[in-house]
Amino acid sequence: MEDQTTAETGPVDNAWAIKIPKFTPEDNPHGLLEESKFATLFPKYREQYLKECWPLVQKVLKEHHIIAELDLIEGSLTVKTTKKTWDPYIIIKARDFMKLLSRSVPFEQASRVLDDEIGCDIIKINSFVRKKETFLKRRQRLIGPNGVTLKSIELLTECYVLVQGNTVSAVGPYKGLIQVRRIVEDTMKNIHPMYNIKSLMIKRELMKDPRLKNESWDRFLPTFKSKNVPRKQPKQTVKKKPYTPFPPPQPESKIDQQLASGEYFLKDEQKRAKRRHEKEEKQLQNKKVREEKRKKDYIPPQEKVKDSVPVSNEPTVDINKFKAKMKKASKQQKLVTKS
């Protein structure tokens, strides 16, 4: 007998391999003393889906003697125990069931959480990153192209994973939920999910080898090295002023400025007249600027004049040569007529 008790209470090699005995109504024949109740809010876009699947939700929870209520006015899901409820932890499971339904998890996957060996985890991811652009990039990295990365995480961890808004919902065995949480948190901390996926695949293969049971697996697993990526420098760099031990001179107050200009001693009427005059001058200046802008459109552009050849008044033809030429031509014509 002593050997059996020590074997049961002693150290365990693999705690995940231990089978938890099923909790039955015979273990708690007297039921629960008090009524427990939980309410969860759901978004407006889930209203139509919840209406359709609500009869199925009530049917599943009725098997565990849990009452479920859907309030469409307040937008809340409520679960509470009855006198027939015998499982003290089923109300927590029912609460998680309602949370998953409100986080866009389909009914078929969310109803699995009511089993003893299945749990759920809703991971908030909006607090890891400040910038929205970085958050969207890392969340997309978790999903992968055409959802390939998310599918590989589901296959390795045996969990259903849904990325919705600022949260990641996971449903599956407790061992897989721990792995999913680590992958999600590392991804939002700028560690690519492929490192964790690769290490999970390697661990799965190493578990098959009994020789490596008592050895460290660190030499087989991939290591992540953080790189200092050069960031974009701001365009406008502020030049630092030369250091001086003396503080800057104190700026003059409004009263000091008025005393220096003599405005302090003016009467209220004179002050008003001065302000009015300054305002009118400012208006005139603005009016001139506006008129100049308007006139710019009507000013013709300067035409480019080509360099013309200078015209001289002096005759370019030599008159004496022209006379001699004409005489010669007339003589030749006379000779032609005589002949």
How is this structure best described in words?
- This protein is mostly helical.
- The protein is 44% helix and 11% strand.
- It has helices at 2-9, 47-62, 90-102, 107-110, 132-143, 148-157, 174-188, 193-206, 254-261, 268-296, 319-338; strands at residues 37-41, 66-71, 76-81, 118-124, 160-164, 167-173.
Radius of gyration: 46 Å
Gross morphology is elongated
- What's the total number of strands? 6
Q: What percent of residues adopt helix (DSSP H or I)? A: 40-55%
Helical/strand content category? mainly alpha
- Uncertain spans: 1-7
Main sheet makeup: 3 strands, antiparallel
Query: Order of strands in the sheet with the most strands?
Result: 1-3-2
| Individual helix count | 11
Beta fraction of the residues?
Answer: 5-15%
Distance between the termini: 169 Å
Let me know the average pLDDT.
85
| N-to-C series of helices and strands | HEHEEHHEHHEEHHHHH
